[in-house]
Structure formats: structure tokens, C-alpha cells
């Protein structure tokens, strides 16, 4: 893991392998051109006040995420200066957005792979800025190397990460981030650093889980990871194996998992705080591999389906983060884990499943399996009568068509709760959009055979899935559904602090929701 330190040293005197400064687009027509952001005054002075001019000569524009490297002059201890774009400069008396700082730090950290120590002198006016920079740098420095260079794979021991390159010449992640301008003796800054470390370590663990091949990460092994984390962080973990699921009548989870050699699991993680006044229940879809089942996915659509457990990874990471931060709220996580495979024992289109709630569901499409495992878990979570339930899932391709690859959809049975989650997501830098649950779409799920079908109208498919889940929420319980199918797995190139592969989508939103709930800000 990349280390984080808060440094009291000056930018010019700090010993590091590189120093990161921020640059922005000046506001035309008054200044125009490139602006060196606050915090980098000593670096600019080493360039005789001409750092912006030198960078412009090299083609730098200050665009968000743009990285320009140049040799440092003799007045600096660090041999390399890395200028990262912050986008448009803020108006007078305004600060840079936290997300701009987060993305810039992430882009710089990615560009500094193979470096041992980098000093970040991005603009810091308050502890919140330091936290955003720390988050961006620690998330940007992520790399999934468990199966490379002789590392031990899933659950194995990684090699010493101090070397700049591995045996294949691939650069190792940035080893240490030093924040210049932060105040290591200030309680707010120390708390910000501790939160950033806990949060990013668990997001990166969620990324690791999403990126792990499905031959190693299956329901039983995922449950073992949760159990081990529970022991480490004082979280009570209960695992429902196949026998317990059969005995309890969890027809949705069993129906999805019955075609696979690796049996399904339902995992409950319970974090409690003695001063907690509220309980938040989180439910995660954990399809460790989704072939589509008998309704088999076509070639080109199943190669990345190890990521279909991203919702469960997000829930797992959130509960562990809440425990590490000692939040004064009870947080219960439910991981609905199964493999969706075709075989002679698999659920067939036309089969009827009796869910844990007693509701019967006609399965019209076995590739609409996520809603089946979630429905059982939501029903179970409702029995504990939490103050709110939030489920998280890579649920529908329809949501990707609607919102693209970088934002998730939010549905809820309470408009105010949906708005709160949207505002929280925007605050922490996760793109999202509130979506409706139109009652007219419910009729499309009417079944002549069962109480409800698992499919409805094709148009508005993401909303139909939300309406299906709503049927299983306990009476008078506030509920929201996050469809993270778009941003959970990045198949394109890395950007900002977002890597290729698993992203850890929704964790920051859920952690902030837990913090707000602990503070009593959500009613």
C-alpha cells in the first residue's frame, strides 16, 4: 500500500523523488494563459517566477488531469517537477473544488508509478482539501498485481513492493505520498489523513475483489474474506451456507446458484456502536460470475462478468470502513453471493421460484438474476427493521444505456432520501442521477403463473428492476437502490484516480451516508 505522510517541510527543501504542483487555466480575458496554483510558490520561485511560461512552452494547458513532467532547477531538492492540470482557475476568493483536487492528485500519482516518494504541493486551504488530495493520490496509486511477477494470487503474499519495477519491467505504484501544506499536529488534519487512509484502503480492497478471477473468488471464498475481516475489525459475521439457505427457504439465492459447482452464500456483517441511535442496512449483489445461466450471454458480453459482485464488494468495504472509523451508527451489510451458471441443474426460463418472503416469481430470463438474490437479502434485512435499506448492484445494462459508464442511477421509495443520496454522491465526487419508479411499469411484470415475473417491459428496464426490488422491502422502511452497472468496472483507459478494471464505485457515497446517519442529519 502507498504510504501517506503530512509534511511540515517546505516545498523547496523536502527530499523527494518528485514534487507535484497544480496548474490551472487562467480566466480570460483578464489573465488567460496558465496559472500556477497556490502552494507552489517556492517551486515557481526556483524557476525565477517563470514556471507557467516554461510549462506553456512545453504545451501544458492546465486542462483537468493533464500531466507535464520537467527537470527541476537547482533550487529544489527534488529532481523532477510534475505539473498536473486542475481545470479552470476558480474566481477570486473561491477555492478549487475538492473533486478537482482529488482527480489531479490521482492523475499525478498514476504518472509517478515507479517513484518512491512524491511531495504534493497542491492548494490546501483546509483539512478537507488535504483529505481530497490524499484520497486522490492513494486511489490513483492503485495497481492490481496479485497475479503478476510471481505474486501469490488471491490470498497469497505479494512480493516486496519497494522496487521501482517488477521482473517484467512494469513500474510499481508510487510508494509514498507526502502532503506539503497539511498540518500534522492539527487534529482536523490528522483526522482527515486517518479517514483518507481507512477509506482508500477499503476501496482498494473492493477493487481487488472485483478484479480477482472468478476461479479464485466464488461465494465460499468471498465469505471467507468477509469472515477474516470481521475478526480483524470487530465485526460480527454470519454465513448462511447452502444447508442454511435451504432450511430458511431462500428460493431466490438458491435458484440463481443451483446450476453452479460452487454453491451460494448469504453473508451478514454486523458493525455496532454502543452510542448508535440509528441502523443502516446495506445489501450488495454478489454474483461472482454471471454467464447469464440458461439465458446465456453472447460472446463479447461475458468476459468481464467477474465484476458482477461489485455491489457486494462495495457493501463489504463500507461496513469495514465504518468499523475502522468507529462511526456512531449501526451498519449491517448483506452480501448475496452466487454464481450464475448453465448446467443440467440450473434454473430454466419458465421455472417458478418461491422467495424467502413467500412471494412466487416466474423466471422469464435467467440473466435477470441479480434482482432474485437481492430480493431475498432485502427481505431478510427488513426483518431487523433498520431505519433505512440501501441496495447496491451492477443490475442492468439499461442503466448503462441511460446514464453511460461513469454514473450510477438512484431509485427510492422516498423522494427526500433519494435526493439526500444524490447530494451525498455529488459531494464525495461520485457521479450519479436520481431516477423514477413509474408505477405504470409494474404491470409489465404481471405473471399468469406466479405472483410476479422477473422481467417486464424492455424499455425502461433499469426502472423495472427497481420496481421489482421495491416489492420485497419491508413495510414502512425507507429504501434506495443504486444501480452501479456503468461505473463499477472501467473497461477503458484509466483517468484521474480511476483505474482500469474494478473502481470501488459507491463506497464513498455509502460511507458518507453512514457518517450523516451517525450525525443525525438524515432524520
Description:
This protein is of the alpha/beta class and 523 residues long. It is built from 14 helices and 20 strands. The strands form 4 sheets. An 8-stranded mixed β-sheet has the order 8-9-11-10-14-18-15-16, sandwiched between helices. Strands 1, 2, 3, 4, 5, 6 and 7 form a 7-stranded mixed β-sheet that branches. Strands 12-13-17 form a 3-stranded mixed β-sheet. Helix 4 (127-140) links the parallel strand 6 and strand 7. Helix 3 (98-111) runs parallel beside helix 4 and helix 4 runs parallel beside helix 5. The mean pLDDT is 95.
Instruction: Give the low-confidence spans.
Output: none
Q: Could you tell me how far the N terminus lies from the C terminus, measured between alpha carbons in angstroms? A: 37 Å
Q: So what's the oligomer here?
A: single chain
Mean pLDDT: 95
Tertiary shape: elongated
Helix and strand composition category: alpha/beta
What is the radius of gyration computed over CA atoms, rounded to a whole number of angstroms?
24 Å
DSSP helix fraction: 25-40%
The spatial strand order of the largest sheet comes to 8-9-11-10-14-18-15-16
Biggest sheet record: 8 strands, mixed
Number of helices: 14
Strand content: 15-25%
Count of extended strands: 20
Amino acid at each position: 500500500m502507498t504510504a501517506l505522510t503530512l509534511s511540515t517541510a517546505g516545498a523547496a527543501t523536502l527530499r523527494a523523488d518528485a514534487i507535484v504542483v497544480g496548474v490551472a487555466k487562467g480566466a480570460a480575458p483578464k489573465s488567460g494563459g496558465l496559472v500556477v496554483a497556490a502552494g507552489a510558490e517556492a517551486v515557481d520561485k526556483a524557476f525565477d517566477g517563470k514556471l507557467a511560461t516554461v510549462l506553456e512552452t512545453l504545451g501544458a494547458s492546465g486542462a483537468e488531469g493533464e500531466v507535464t513532467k520537467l527537470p527541476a532547477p537547482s533550487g529544489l531538492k527534488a529532481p523532477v517537477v510534475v505539473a498536473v492540470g486542475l481545470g479552470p482557475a476558480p474566481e477570486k476568493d473561491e477555492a478549487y473544488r475538492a473533486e478537482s483536487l482529488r482527480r489531479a492528485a490521482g492523475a499525478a500519482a498514476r504518472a509517478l508509478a515507479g517513484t518512491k516518494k512524491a511531495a504534493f504541493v497542491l492548494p490546501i486551504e483546509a483539512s478537507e482539501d488535504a483529505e481530497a488530495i490524499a484520497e486522490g493520490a492513494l486511489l490513483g496509486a492503485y495497481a492490481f498485481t496479485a497475479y503478476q511477477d510471481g505474486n501469490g494470487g488471491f490470498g497469497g503474499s505479494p512480493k516486496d513492493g519497494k522496487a521501482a519495477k517488477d521482473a517484467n519491467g512494469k513500474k510499481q505504484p508510487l510508494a509514498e505520498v507526502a502532503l506539503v501544506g497539511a498540518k500534522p499536529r492539527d487534529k482536523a488534519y490528522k483526522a482527515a489523513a486517518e479517514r483518507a487512509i481507512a477509506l482508500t484502503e477499503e476501496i482498494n480492497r473492493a477493487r481487488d475483489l472485483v478484479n480477482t478471477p472468478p476461479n479464485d473468488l466464488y461465494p465460499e471464498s468471498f465469505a471467507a474474506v468477509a469472515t477474516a475481516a470481521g475478526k480483524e475489525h470487530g465485526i460480527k459475521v454470519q454465513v448462511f451456507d447452502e444447508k442454511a439457505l435451504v432450511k430458511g427457504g431462500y428460493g431466490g439465492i438458491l435458484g440463481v446458484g443451483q446450476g453452479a459447482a460452487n454453491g451460494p452464500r448469504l453473508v451478514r456483517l454486523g458493525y455496532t456502536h454502543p452510542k448508535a441511535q440509528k441502523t443502516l442496512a446495506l445489501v450488495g449483489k454478489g454474483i461472482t460470475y454471471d454467464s447469464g445461466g440458461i439465458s446465456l450471454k453472447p460472446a463479447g458480453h461475458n468476459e468481464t462478468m467477474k465484476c458482477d459482485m461489485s455491489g457486494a464488494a462495495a457493501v463489504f468495504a463500507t461496513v469495514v470502513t465504518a468499523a475502522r472509523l468507529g462511526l456512531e451508527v449501526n451498519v449491517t451489510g448483506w452480501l448475496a453471493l452466487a454464481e450464475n451458471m448453465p448446467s443440467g441443474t440450473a434454473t430454466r426460463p419458465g421455472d417458478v421460484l418461491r422467495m424467502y418472503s413467500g412471494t412466487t416469481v416466474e423466471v422469464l430470463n435467467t440473466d435477470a438474476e441479480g434482482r432474485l438474490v437481492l430480493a431475498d437479502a432485502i427481505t431478510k434485512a427488513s426483518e431487523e427493521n433498520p431505519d433505512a435499506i440501501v441496495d447496491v448492484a451492477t443490475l442492468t445494462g439499461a442503466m448503462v444505456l441511460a446514464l453511460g459508464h461513469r454514473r450510477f442511477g438512484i431509485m427510492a421509495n422516498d423522494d427526500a432520501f433519494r435526493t439526500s443520496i444524490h447530494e451525498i454522491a455529488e459531494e464525495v465526487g461520485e457521479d450519479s442521477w436520481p431516477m423514477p419508479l413509474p408505477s405504470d411499469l409494474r404491470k409489465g411484470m404481471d405473471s399468469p403463473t406466479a405472483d410476479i415475473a422477473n422481467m417486464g417491459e424492455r424499455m425502461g428496464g433499469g426502472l423495472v428492476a427497481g420496481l421489482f426490488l421495491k416489492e420485497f422491502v419491508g413495510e414502512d422502511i425507507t429504501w434506495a437502490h443504486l444501480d452501479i452497472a456503468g461505473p463499477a468496472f472501467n473497461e477503458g483507459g484509466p483517468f484521474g484516480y480511476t483505474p482500469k478494471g474494478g473502481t470501488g464505485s459507491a463506497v464513498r457515497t455509502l460511507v458518507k451516508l453512514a457518517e450523516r446517519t451517525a450525525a443525525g442529519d438524515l432524520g
